[in-house]
Amino acid sequence: MSLQTVRNVVLLFSNPSWSDGHSVPSTILRNITALSSKIAYSEDLLGNITTLSTTSVSTANGVVQGLLYVPDLSDDDPCNDLAATYIPQNVTRQVNLPTTNYNLIALAPWINATCTRSFLASARADPLRAMLVYRPDSDTSQPPDVDDEAWDLGDAGAWKTTNRYPVYAIPGASGNEMMRQLSLYSGDLSEVPFSDQIMSTYSPNPADYVRVWTELTVITVSKTLPLWAFILIILGVIVAVIGGTSLLMHFVQGRRRAALRRRVMRGEVNLEGLGIKRLIVPMKHIKAFPLFTYNYDPPVPSPTTGKFPQKKGRRSSEASWTPVSLRNDTRNEKIDSAMDYQPACLICLEDFESKKTIIRELPCGHIYHPECIDEFLSQLSSLCPSCKASMLPPGYCPKITNSMVRREFGTRRLRSRGAVIHVDVERGRRRLSSWSSNMKKHIWHVSSPKPDEGLDLQAVSLPEQPRAGRLSTVGTTRDRMQDLIVPVDETNSDDGRPPWKRTALKVFPGFR
């Protein structure tokens, strides 16, 4: 309980009497201060009060009240002589109060630790409701705070919980005045101030009591938190859990983005090949791919057997190309290719002319017209039109997003289960039936003849034969380029989700 105000008034109590062998309790006859403040003491102390201990006591409407008195010390207590300097000899003690068991409010000077412990111990034996203490000086300001060493009794503050009543500190000037008034209102009616006016006005019994009555207005501080505090705590916990979870998921997703970035840079993941991100190759890197002169010598059959000659460890038909820088060299040395026979550009479907056509060879070994492959790689796709190998520079990686991480993770999980993945393609394009198909429907492959089989030169030289296995797409080169690229869903994978789910993905990036 925190003390707010102290109010002192003077009351007239009846003297207990005996009737039929029984004692009639003393009762309050008049509130002299309320009836006439001119003939009685009254004081209101507002503020400048320090609560030293808050031991709870029952209150009525936040008011603690009782007769004001000074606790008695034992005769052999050494503080008697020291306290006599600050406490008048005729001050109201318990013996000067009505014999009826009224609630009491104690008043005592805080002289030193020893004397204060004596007053506290004496007050514990009385029906005390509260105790007022003061430093015996003339200071009118608020007493020191509760944690100040001025209130240290040498027991580490144990006295604050030992007593079953609260203790409040008031200014020294107010304590001295209250102590002086207690010395005036300790005798009988003939000895109290304005005794003649009181007796003529109220006609009391000469044996009645006129004493100081103290009312303390306190604010009880409940140890149970109010409802709004519980609500704030719950909201705070919820916000902390949501914030912590969000930060953790952002951290985990950041690690996943970094891991995917490293795998892409090492060439372990082909984002465009998985249909996740459309990429293009920088022209500077494309220009670094070597240029050659296409060189193909068709095999000549034996005039006696009619079969093609066989070379040990070599195919019956070989294509090679000479670097552009050596095209005019008299040696005209051929460079063997590990790739199968490639008679035409897969993009424009035009045949290569031996020793005339300039071709660009990709790192995967496939060859194209420079103008065709340069436009394809720099504007449409980063993958080889034939084998879908990535042509991006080593260590290159686009900006990795959470959507890419989710889609790549889902792709790996489905592929590990052997599931078939279907990707919808816009503008009426076909569907990618399997991630392992590697776009085989766009690749034309001519099987090499077996060693024991002859090769018909007529069939090889005819342009219709290689085109029979090619795509049936009719249109411009640009249209054929569109048919050769891997279907990629360029839309945000989160666009089809409900708004609440998109919001949840921003807060919790790992949410699915």
Description:
With 512 residues, this protein is α+β, with helices and mostly antiparallel strands. The protein folds into 2 domains: 2-219, no CATH class; 273-398 and 406-485, Herpes Virus-1, CATH 3.30.40.10. 28% of the residues lie in helices and 16% in strands. The chain is rod-shaped, with a radius of gyration of 53 Å. The relative contact order is 0.10.
H-E order: EEEEHEEEHEHEHEHHEHHEEEEHHHHHH
| Helix fraction bin | 25-40%
| pLDDT averaged over residues | 78
What is the global morphology?
Answer: rod-shaped
Rg of Cα set: 53 Å
Distance between the termini: 54 Å
* Helix vs. strand class: alpha+beta
Structural domains: how many: 2
The residue ranges in which pLDDT falls below 50 over 5 or more consecutive positions are 311-318, 325-338, 420-474
Summed up:
With 512 residues, the chain is α+β, with helices and mostly antiparallel strands.
SSE inventory with pairings:
Blueprint: E1 2-13, E2 17-19, E3 22-24, E4 28-31, H1 32-35, E5 43-46, E6 50-53, E7 63-69, H2 79-83, E8 104-109, H3 113-123, E9 128-134, H4 159-162, E10 167-170, H5 172-184, H6 195-202, E11 209-219, H7 227-265, H8 283-286, E12 291-296, E13 319-323, E14 358-361, E15 367-368, H9 370-380, H10 402-417, H11 457-461, H12 464-468, H13 477-484, H14 499-507
Parallel strand pairs: 7-8, 8-9, 9-10
Antiparallel strand pairs: 1-4, 1-5, 1-11, 2-3, 6-10, 7-11, 12-13, 12-14, 14-15
